[in-house]
Amino acid sequence: MVLYNVTVGIDAKAELEWLEWMKATHIPAVMNTGQFIENKIFKVVSEEEEETVSYSIQYFAKDVDHVVKYLNDFAPPLVEEHRTRYQNRHVAFRTLLEEV
User: Fold this and answer.
1) Domain count of the fold of the chain
2) Of the candidates 69, 66, 89, which has an alpha carbon nearest to the alpha carbon of residue 19?
3) Which domain holds residue 26?
4) Per-residue pLDDT for the chain (100 aa), expressed as one digit of tens each?
5) How far apart are CA 86 and CA 48, in angstroms?
6) What's 44's domain CATH number?
7) Of all residues in the chain, what percent are helix, strand and coil, respectively (each to 5)?
8) Is 83 helix (H, G, I), strand (E, B) or coil?
9) Number of H-type helices and E-type strands within the chain
10) Would you give the DSSP letter of residue 73?
């Protein structure tokens, strides 16, 4: 199994709207590609009040080939939609992890 992790730092002023959109629209769209078998979302816990709130969005796939297919065939318009919708209000980085 592999984990495709997307860490997003979102402007605190947009957090609630972003989280609702992620849960209702973006994550279901990613899951509907058929490349992932499960997903989870975690909020990074911080005791300090900051202007940015971070989340880890985790997508689990059977193997790397499913993630590569997602990245090549499905991700570009989904990533662009997120980038455009939250332009100048987020940062994101992606990590691929393999279970050992």
Assistant:
1) 1
2) 89
3) 2-98
4) 999 999 999 999 999 999 999 999 999 999 999 999 999 999 999 867 778 999 999 999 999 999 999 999 999 999 999 999 999 999 999 999 998 9
5) 23
6) 3.30.70.100
7) 40, 35, 25
8) helix
9) 4, 4
10) I
